[in-house]
Amino acid sequence: MRIGPSVKGSGPAGGGPQPIQAYPRLMQQRPRALVVRTAGINRDAELLRAFKLAGADAEAVHLDRLIAEPDRIDEYAIIGFPGGFSYGDDVASGRIMAMHARERLWDRFSGAVERGALVIGVCNGFQVMVQMGLLPGPIGKSPVQRVALTENTGARFVNKWVRMIPEPGSKCVWTRGLEGAVEPELLMFPSAHGEGRFVADSPETLDELEAGGQVALRYEENFNGSERSIAGICDPSGRVFGLMPHPEDFVHWNRHPWWTRLTEHERSGSPPGLRLFQNAVEAASSPVGARA
Amino acid sequence: MTTAATLVVRFEVRPRPGAGDPRGDDLVRRAWEIGVRLTAARAARVYLIEGDLSDEQVETIRTRLLTDPVVEVSELGASEPVPESATVEVHPLPGVMDPTAQSVRDAVLALTGTEVRVSTGWRYDLEGVDASEAEDLARRLVANPVINAIHAAPFHPEALPSGTPAEFRVMRVPIRDLDDAGLEKLSREGHLFLDLAEMRTIREHYAAQGREPTDIELETLAQTWSEHCVHKTLKSTISYTGPLESDAIDWSARPGHEKSGATEITVRNLLKSTVAAATHELIAEGIDWTLSVFVDNAGIIRFDDETAVCVKVETHNHPSALEPYGGAATGIGGCIRDIIGTGLAARPIASTDVFCVAHPDTEDIPAGCIPPRRVLTEVVAGVRDYGNRMGIPTVNGAVLFDNRYIGNPLVFCGCVGVLPTDLIEGHAKPGDLIVALGGRTGRDGIHGATFSSAELTDTHADEFAHAVQIGNAIEEKRVLDAILRARDEAGGPLFSAITDCGAGGFSSAVGEMGERIGASVTLDSAPLKYGGLTYTEIWISEAQERMVLAVPASNLDRLREICDEEHVELAVLGEFGTPDRELVLSFQGEEVGRLSMEFLHEGLPTPTRSASWSPSPTPKAGSESDPDVNGAVLALLAHPDIASKHFIIRQYDHDVQGNTVVKPLMGARAIGPADSSVIEPNPGTGRGLAIGCGVQTGVGDPRVGGDPYQMALGAIDECVRNLVCVGADPDRIAILDNFCWPSCKKPENLGSLVRAAEGCYDGAKAYRTPFVSGKDSLNNQFTTEDGRTIEIPPTLLITGIGVVPDLDRCVTSDAKRPGNTLIVVGQGETPPTAMGGSRYQSLFGLTERDDPATPRVDLEAGPRTARAVASLIRAGLVESAHDISDGGLLVAVAELLIGGHKPGAPLGAELELPGHDDTGLSAAFCESPSRYLLEVCAARLPEIEKLLGSTPWVHIGAIDESGRLGWAGAGLDLDVEELTHAWRGTLNW
To answer: Chain B contacts of A163, Cβ < 8 Å?
Structure first.
């Protein structure tokens, strides 16, 4: 089933932020979402907002608190690792946060993946997830890192909105239905990173990701030099997802860089960023075994 | 240096072969840009870790913390040099902030349980250069001797440097018996930068006390009385001499002004009588939405019923001249702290930056100056690295180029914050604890406040290296997170006042907060980065990322809990309130200073300063003929002031927080320039805040006969235009002033400052835009080693914030659709002609036929036009809007097309500019103020005409699908792609 306003033409007119749609079924059972924050994380508020707009009960919890009370992780159907500069991105982006999470909470986070939790890492969160070994998966007994997000080829931080090409046949639950939901040229997310170049440990790993439907999104313009233009990947279940661009920054139409050129018709329905989170809330609300 | 028993382990981490080396490649690129034929470069990160670590722990650190298994390789010690290459290493000097080292130290402790000390650096293996060329290249591109050591071989010390405890004794400075020469010598050699009158006042004060001051008392006075902290020039009494009759300024009936003859007038407290007077008069006339003006760290206005917005813009010029990266980073860091320290703490939502530098291709660079291209790229990197890490979108700015900024570049950093309307005021109460939060105190930034108030010379880099600092944004982010939690506690804020530690360090922060009640401080309590600081250094250090709070004792435990959770260090320095309203300082149980708050804050002598003004002559025409119109348009678009700043904008995160509705670059290809940016502070409400600026240095430039009075009016007008063009309500605009002037000890410079301030008064009154805050920097000039003084052109930045009532009505500057009509509002059938100070003049000169006057603002028409345009936008009649400013009308139209055009959906325009047959071509490039270029639907012209009423406007052409900009009457015909290329090519770094 599809949740959210039907694709086109039924949203409120105008480009302003739209009221949160009420979905009776979800109102009764809003899934709980955890946003993991720590020193230097700075897009936690946006991730919270995106989860809430999509229909989840979301809260941000400090990594130290989770280390002190690891049981809490088991309470959430959805887990998000937000963007930012955790611990200053000192040493490398996401390195120190990944170290803390891997050394202290590997069992909990890998357990969450195994029980079918929906997990997303955006930008710094994606960097953390790959260094923890949560992506690309599958999860083993001990953490293994197989891919990396390293310095852009231009050796510089870049902030711009980039076109996303959803991978046909991807297993990713988060990006379901993204293709065709809006005009292709509107399917954009802002990128804001200096270390987002996707690199795998071998060409075989890349082949495996492609063959297994684990590539979720590619860049139309490969501005950071990622291998095979990969912008986002998921685990073999499709429920664990990481990407460099920021869908949580495109949950209102008037954040698009040419929204003042769009017609009311073009600006109706859920913006592509919100759609991702709605997909996750929907998946979290359905029993794991029942998913397509 | 002391040698510890433990050894230093050296780790080298570099990209795995085949995984790319962007940092090395970038160095090659930058070397070629400055003519060094580097053939290859490899970069490696170096970590020096000192501690009692087992081999196993070292391996754990190497593999689990320092090395990425997919893209990096690492080894212990130093790797073999690459054959045929030179090795150079760059490490921070002892005491220079090294954020990565701090993070690694904490991470190693978490990973291994062992306390270590850490230092980090970079190794470069450079091919195609010899050892001395390599060192030279490092100095020019990746190291600054002010903060870095450069090593010609891998650096592996036996121990990391550590401070040695300072010997403590109270220093008394004999002053009572000094003569004038002695006072001046003490001021200069002690880096107090106090003038003779001030030194005499201090001498008399201590003579009356019957004792000599301690060093810390003198330093406290010097910090508190510095131009940087107290704005003594702007607050002083000024005797202004110049023509008062038939002047552009109407000198009659100005508040705080008293005429004493036909050519002389006395101004009591210039700031209060101009900038602040305008605000207070506007408030008296009924403006009820300002909430706090001129008293706090930032000005505050009402945004909606629950939300207030505060705004502040600072300059950080002198530190940026010596170390552009650190100077700009700590500049934005300091301005963000101003916002955090406003009211009972605000949450920063946007940053701005404006830079003034010399032309990037300048070859004549005086000794002691950093080349302008490096200055610009590094100040941008500084703002980028600090602002992005803080998670605050940098959304608005400008860059201005003029060779008079060569030794004294200007770096303006602004920040906007939000706070609940019921938390806009805080006061320290007697008994409140003085609590310092955040970074530790070190020897960095000593004398920043006094240094910034001095004049730069070629030897300043040696003399004032200690005033330069590197920031640690994550420390500040943690502090922000902790403070917002402490503010939003269910039972109300845990603190009764807050301010930032900026210029002057604890001395200014505690001195200001305790001004009315006194304070006693135990200096031993401040956490230090390393041993060896004297009590005075602790007191005046401007170490970054520190805030001072006044905390009721009963709230301390809860505050400490929050700080522990957020990894923020908290220290109780003392207590507010003393019986006699004094500042009492002690160290190791001994009193080291005691100053009355009254003398500290009110003892500063206010001598009368002389100011004079005589209009500078308008230069004679220097050109024989008009340039070719096509070439002129392309050259203007390529002018660095006008050219696209995408290389800067794209490095700043302007989307973080997810609330940026109008971004700096918008339009069909997201490359069109926005006049202002718009933020939605409370997402989902549809109400926005526009952030823009105006600066009109050319209009005030003495070299073209300019008048700083008109420059100020022009800057206010431009700021209002920029805000109105995106949809701001002109009746909800608040503005800030930032004066950057050459030495105002010179009467001519003070005279020009007075005129600019008078312009601020008249402009704010006419536009009904209250000033809510401001800042000045009045010693911006550079003295070369041969004694030549280069004064910057007087520079006034006006920053504005305006409420956008309905985000749906936001307008951007990109051309929208073929068939639409282009009109100019604010201009009638007869075009303006004043060409003085224009970019056109700077490129082509003027002919006899051109009008060499500098533009003037009509204070009746300007505000009326702004409101007329706003009414059109509010009525939904405007499809795109762009302010006509730098480069004039044709440049504005070109930018409109650049924003709206894209291959596959071309847009063009055919123009017919009325009245230009009579005035010559140059008038199409006139930068006359109060004009708006609008794209409207032709069918709605009758409605538009009706709404505009008596406001003049003129039809100038139409949008078409040609992909060309044409004006047949003048022979203009250019492809929009060509326009785009010219505009984006100059600063495509």
So the answer is: none
